[in-house]
Amino acid sequence: MRMRQNARGARAAAALVAVIGTLIAAGCGSNGSSGTTSAGGTSNAGTVSTSQCGTKPGVKATGTPIPLGGIVTNQPGTSFTDIANMANAYFTCVNNNGGINGHPIKYYIQTEQTNPAQVAAVAKQLVQTDHVVGIVGNTSIIECSVNHSYWEKLGFFVVDSGIAPECYSTPNSAAVNMGPRYSSDGAVQYALSQHVSKIVFDQSNVPGTGYIAAGPAALAAAAHVPIVQLTENVPISDANSVAIKEVNDAGPNGAVILNFTPPEALVILQAAQKLGLEDNVKLWGCSTPCNTDFLAKALGPKWNNKLFVNAELTPPDSTNTPAMRLYKAILAKYGKAVSGGIGSFSQMGFAEAEIMVHALRSVKGAYTVASVNAALKAVSNFDTGMLCEGWTYGGFPMHIPNNVDYTVTPKDGKMVVAKGCTPVSSVDPQIAAYRKAAGTG
Amino acid sequence: MPSWQEFEPFIVSGLALGGVYALSGVGTVVLYQATGVVYLAFGAVGALGALIAWSLTNAGAPDWLAWLVCVLVSGAVTLAYGMVFGPPLARRDPLVKAVATLGLTLVLFGLMDLLWTTNGGQSRAITLPTDNGGFTIGQLQVTWTQVIGLGAGIAIVVVTTVFLRYTKLGTAMRAMANDREITATLGVPVRRVEAAAWLGCGVIAGVAGLLLANLVALDATTLTFLVISSLAAALIARLRSIVGTFLAAMAIGLIHDLLTPIQSLSSYRDMTPFVLAAVALLVFSRHRVISLSREEA
Fold first, then answer.
1. Which of A32, A177, A376, A410 is the most exposed place for a label (fewest CB within 10 A)?
2. What is the pTM of this model?
3. Which domain holds residue B128?
4. What is the ipTM of this complex?
């Protein structure tokens, strides 16, 4: 009797699991379809063939592989795998079109969960086990801080997407993006150009907030505009009070500048909208993470020309250059693993891979750590098609090669350009130091 | 010290936040009253339902269908967990039962992170028709969804209190939560009563998930771990009083938000639920009214 009851229970549980599975599959299906919508932007891709990735269209590279490595954070709530996956898509495209002088690229992607010991271990694994000759696509909350000395000791010149201060302030790391500090600088700079009377700069309460806040503080001080610095614990569960405080502190002629991940920024902006506060300040600003069509779509038309987002990379929707078409074509053909589709993350991966391929093509002789990294270091004023200006590595003590940016604003569910390429102000002492070192200041 | 005028908007937002905690906290206490399990997966189950509803709406399904699926999925997941893990854990310590639900929380959280990734800046939102209407208090707009959120908390308190106290099934639930074996000996169909309790809690989690996805955020992390702050309200009410949980949640929300404009305390406002819970536990322990298990109470 008991066994029969148990069997009945098990059958009922199995039926429930099946129902839930079906519903989840329905959920995933729709998620996938929204991904397809995003990739729908790739319709222009037909005008550019992915054969442009290499010098021998349609010929698969069969030579000795060139091993490269990358380290990305992948943990619940924070995943940068799209960047490495897009770089991998580019490398696959190169491999299918002649490779690098007949050599395919073998790209090893290591993921980490913000554990310093693990981050150090995966770097050693890439070097000692996988014998990589170059590091590209690194995007991690702590990787630059943990590993920069290791790369310096071994002579690796890393091409990455920077987050930690060391990604910008050390000699062997050069990022394609501006990172949170300089992107926040750009957002504050735009607000100041609109003659706001006060700045409220709010960011998530994570390590490094002081470093990030120093840039906007310097810009506001130089413009003689008062600035209020706030931090919020994430995830934010009291968005209403956060929005009220920001608006009250900024005042009717002030600006609220946010430096959060898109979901957190969305929570604050939606709270402001629901409370009817969006027009109680002169403008809202945001650093680069807000530059996604997901956000523009979720916010709706009330934020058109009200929210101004700093954009570190060329806006993909309104740009029709060969590089942008190639990026979309590669994404469509090889980028199945790039879950976010068209957007800043995949653009960064594309640009980093481009730089690496450009450097590899200039190597004469064997592909070794010394030859590949010398070639990377020599990259100068390279046009990635994804940035306002050419990208340079160089032998500088610090690197902020992307320091000219766009400002975008939501319009009908998309981010459109509000202001074209504008250099980030040298009032930020770090930008001034870099320009001096690079001889561009 | 800010002026009264500066505090005013935070009273409104504090009540809204209290309503959010109440929705979550009351659901937790209802299940505890009925099964003796502190259901830590309450937030994760609601989040799963809300994310599926979002996907369905995005795929073109009618809103009502998406909301219904949200509630049904939350109910089904909770019922499935209760039916599979409830009986073997029935005789275990309350702490073991709570930790087991933490396992479910982590599995669901991982699943949501996998299926609804935030990679590439993906962010989502659920909008309800009631977002567009409302009224103004001071300078703040109050949407009907916020009113419904607060009303839902009150409705759940009233309905479950009446249900548990005055209906046959409710009485059976309370008896079973107190002592499963004796209740079974008295001829109560414990599996069926347990199933009803788990399903009811899941349905509340689904409704709460949908409302919280709109009121707080449609984000797996936020909704999953919101239960921790709500648990403070439940602890202040010693996991016994549904009305007490509601009032504690409202107090936490109000105090939390009233600290926001005070510059020197603003950064510490997120400690409010835990400080209040710790103070309450200390007071209760001084008066020896706290117990380790329901049997000792």
1. A32
2. 0.80
3. 4-296
4. 0.78
